[in-house]
Amino acid sequence: MSQQTVEPEAIRRARAEFPKMRERDLAQKLSVSEAELVAAHCGHGVTRIAPDVERLLKGLEALGPVMALTRNESAVHEKIGVYEKVTASRQHAIVLGSDIDLRIFPSHWAHGFAVEKGSGADKRYSLQFFDAAGDAVHKVHLRGDSNLYAYQQLVETLAVGDQSQQVVTSPPAPKPVETAAEGDAELFDTLRQRWADMKDVHQFVSILRTLKLSRYQAVHMIGDDFAWRLDGSALGAMMSHAVAQEIPIMCFVGSRGCIQIHSGPVMNVKPMGPWLNVMDPTFHLHLRTDHVAELWAVRKPTKDGHVTSLEAYDAKGSLIIQFFGKRHEGEGEREDWRFLIEHLPRVPRATAA
């Protein structure tokens, strides 16, 4: 439980008092985690289930079309489709369906719940998973054409004996100590050499880990031939051009325990206040543009030529969202995507710091 414990009964009363408030917002109002908010309703439409990624993914395909949701503080990524082409182990799991595409890190899945809301024809069903801090890592929402019987069978399979209304949460693990990078000529040379030698974009994470650098530090250090800062208007411009030119993109949003990917065109982009929304038939994105402190274009070498991403960072230097041009392994980057990113408005390096 959080340090300032709120009794389950008080949480349920608050839920009844603010029935339309989103769980994340109500949890913040009550100074509890979202997992604590959900757990307080065990026996009241909520069932605790094991956060067992292997067993979960093996049972999800039978549910048919559902909505997969992964979010962080600043972006919500929703995909409608079927959980298929699953590979799962205790260390990692991958879903490679035509619509639902996930990279899952099971060690961060600490709490699971099956949630039922409403009644009659308006009843809604979901599976919700949280990390040790009580923050959501991934959710699965049933739709009208989902297989409710398969859902009920899966919940029965995953249900645990402990149906208590409280959970123990702990703060997120501290980030690894990063290298003090500024002005370190040797580190700069090593980073540039290893960056230039990349044959696969997936090697990037191991380079950062070895050099004890954050992604944010690396893009600031590397130099304009590999990363350049973009003007704040570049994100909206990229989306507008991708829609107008029908450029299929890849959009990555991650929590601590899951990265969710959209691959394909975007068609219906709707800014609304600070939110940039995509409302397409099988892909919904809700991005808080006022949380974006810096935008960067990042170029990484691969055996198939370099690939270019647009990356948004918050004020703490954490990655919010990434965009690439759609491509498959073994293919070169799309020329229309590369041209678009290279011609977005830039911030001169001298004033980018």
Topology:
Layout: H1 8-17, H2 23-30, H3 34-39, E1 46-49, H4 53-60, E2 66-71, E3 75-81, E4 86-88, E5 93-96, E6 101-104, E7 111-117, E8 124-130, E9 136-142, H5 148-158, H6 185-196, H7 203-211, H8 215-221, E10 227-230, H9 234-244, E11 249-254, E12 258-264, E13 269-272, E14 275-279, E15 283-288, E16 294-300, E17 307-313, E18 319-325, H10 335-342, H11 349-352
Helix pairs in contact: 4-5
Could you give a quick summary of the protein structure above?
The chain has helices spanning 8-17, 23-30, 34-39, 53-60, 148-158, 185-196, 203-211, 215-221, 234-244, 335-342, 349-352, and strands at 46-49, 66-71, 75-81, 86-88, 93-96, 101-104, 111-117, 124-130, 136-142, 227-230, 249-254, 258-264, 269-272, 275-279, 283-288, 294-300, 307-313, 319-325.
Report on this model:
It is a single chain. By secondary structure, the protein is of the alpha+beta class. It has 2 domains: 126 residues, Heme iron utilization protein-like fold, CATH 3.40.1570.10; 157 residues, HemS/ChuS/ChuX like domains (Heme iron utilization protein-like fold, 3-Layer(aba) Sandwich), CATH 3.40.1570.10. Helices cover 27% and strands 29% of the residues. The chain contains 11 helices and 18 strands. The strands form 2 sheets. The chain has a 9-stranded antiparallel sheet with strand order 1-7-8-9-2-3-15-14-13. The chain has a 9-stranded antiparallel sheet with strand order 4-5-6-12-11-18-17-16-10, with helices on both faces. The longest helix is centred in the middle third of the chain and has 12 residues. It starts with 7 loop residues before the first helix and ends with a helix.
